[in-house]
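Structure catalogue
Derive tokens from sequence
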Amino acid sequence: MTSAAAPKPYSPAQRLETLLGSKGSLAAHLPGFVHRPEQVALAHAVETALAQGRPCLAEAGTGVGKTLAYLVPLVRWLEKHGGRAVISTHTLALQAQLINRDIPTLLEALPELEIQAAALKGRSNFLCLQDLDVTAGELWTQGDPQFAQIRRWANETDTGDVAELDFTFPDWQEIAANPDTCRQRECRYFERCFYFKARKAAEECQLLVVNHALFFADLRLRRANPGGPTLIPPYDAVVFDEAHHIEDMATRAFGLEFGSRRVTQLTARARRVPGAVDPARLASLEALNQVVFDPFLSAPQPEAFLHELIRADADRAAFDSRVAELSAGLGALAKDLTVAADNASDTTIRDRAAGLAPTRFPPRHRNSGSNEGGGRGSPC
């Protein structure tokens, strides 16, 4: 009597071939699934790169099934090695597709994998309860039916994510979480804060889906302050989908971008802190801001270095003087807001003033500049 020979172990490529084959687990759970040799080849390249800890740069045409080609080896790698992985996309639409459809479908097809996934969005996607309270006391919100809907939604939502709304609120920026007014742990709403709750939930997941803007903002923060607070929890691998947008997003993240609307947004918020700042000071700051940005607003080309827009030494000296004056004025505004916060008896006013006081701006002197977004305001 002879015993059968032990089966030979499958190679990674063979295992992927089985999983992504016409009779595999995915075919059983995905109606219309079609076996694609190119998809298997791409999945094998991703799996090999993860196993060897090296980069993998891949391009595939429409219909290849790129999403599953990187998701399958990625979740298998996480199950085997542990840790956390990040998928970075350019658009929120793809981010939503991944977290709401693609990843759940894949994990349903592979029930042996115990992977928790979540989307992590930037701060401005979340409602700020502190700013909602402040805004509720302003005249323009009285009788506004959409604002009334927002207040009802604030008491019902678990996430505070603007994506839940079935309408567009034109003044969302007034009530969205933002670094200018955020007091973090000092805020009386910190335990209920939608943004920090999302951050905490993300720390418990092995797979995070973010967008490129958030990824590179986090990377800039990590490089500027090693070991300090981050926007994304620690991770061991990253996949960039829609990678052709990376160059632009990385340039924005690691460059210095300061839109003309930044000062006017700050002064508008400061005006809503009763008695905190002399209105004449705010008007002066707005006028200086306009003068500083005039060379960019009137430039014929969409991008330019500062020395190309202001060529004469005397004009450059005058420009530098105005920038210094604007910077000093913003410093004085910060002091006024700090004093107002210290002296306020009303909790809402104190929180608002204290949140605005530490608003940070670029340094006074710059050797070059760009008018891209200068007159339009550019989100950071």
Remarks:
- Residues 1-11, 362-380 have pLDDT under 50 and may be disordered.
- The first strand starts at residue 85 and ends at 89.
- Strands lie at 85-89, 117-119, 207-211, 237-240.
- Residues 124-195 form one domain.
